[in-house]
Amino acid sequence: MDKKSILFVCLGNICRSPAAEAILKRHVEERGLAGFIRVDSAGTGGWHIGELPDARMRHHAATRGYTVDSRVRRFDPATDFAAFDLIIGMDEQNIRDLRDMASTDEERAKIHRAIGYCRRFTGDTEVPDPYFDGAEGFEHVLDLLEDATGGLLDHLVGKEVVNK
Ligand code: 4NP
After folding, report:
1. Per-residue pLDDT tens for 71-122?
2. Cβ contacts of residue 5 below 8 Å, gap of 6+?
3. Share of the chain above pLDDT 70, in %
4. Known catalytic membership, residue 73
5. pLDDT, position 2
6. How many C-beta atoms surround the C-beta of residue 118 within 10 A?
7. Beta strand pairing call for 86-89 and 111-113
8. How far apart are CA 16 and CA 88, in angstroms?
């Protein structure tokens, strides 16, 4: 298997994308694939650079055994399009923003929707921003991301992804 690099992108890089990063990293480690798959996350917005992720997301993720402790950084089109094989947005605005920043077809082809890798939550159309939601919103995001990262990992190791 070739080494693959995955970048999850949301708006703030404090809720959805750092959670996706933590979940996929744990799956990767559990399956002994740490040498083959590199995972990172970034935000299209720049409000929280250098901070830890949102305390509510850290708490909800921790109850499922995930440590969400990456530092917030902003997506950098000048370096990130070249540095990653897959750039995975959470909602339609993320996808639009990423496409606006892409300057070649090759860069645009790297952009995908997280929800497209889901196998259980096939009726959902995006991973919604939980920032103004209560606990249920964070739990729902984690449900979606566990589903999506599992599908993504199977896709990377060569199994068929059903809802894609
Ligand atoms: P995220 O959630 O994109 O999942 O990290 C958000 C976090 C912060 C803001 C918006 C969304 N904000 O407007 O500060």
Report:
1. 999 999 999 999 999 999 999 999 999 999 999 999 999 999 999 999 999 9
2. 37, 38, 39, 40, 83, 84, 85, 86
3. 96
4. no
5. 75
6. 26
7. parallel
8. 11
Is 10 one of the annotated active-site residues of the chain?
A: yes
pLDDT at residue 100 in the model = 98
User: For residue 107, which phi and psi values (nearest 5 degrees)?
Assistant: -65, -45
pLDDT of amino acid 164: 37
Which of 15, 16, 91, 147 is flagged as catalytic? 16
DSSP three-state, residue 4:
strand
Phi, psi of 27 (to 5 degrees): -60, -40
CB 157 within 8 Å of CB 1:
yes
CA of residue 142 to ligand 1 center, whole Å: 15
- Set out the domains of the chain in order of their start, with CATH numbers: 4-156 (3.40.50.2300)
**Of 142, 157, 163, 128, whose CA–CA distance to 22 is shortest?**
142
Query: With a 6 A CB cut-off, is 10 part of the ligand 1 pocket?
Result: yes
Any idea which residue has 């993720």 for tokens?
Answer: 61
Q: Answer yes or no: pTM beyond 0.90.
A: yes
Size of the chain, expressed as the number of residues it contains: 164
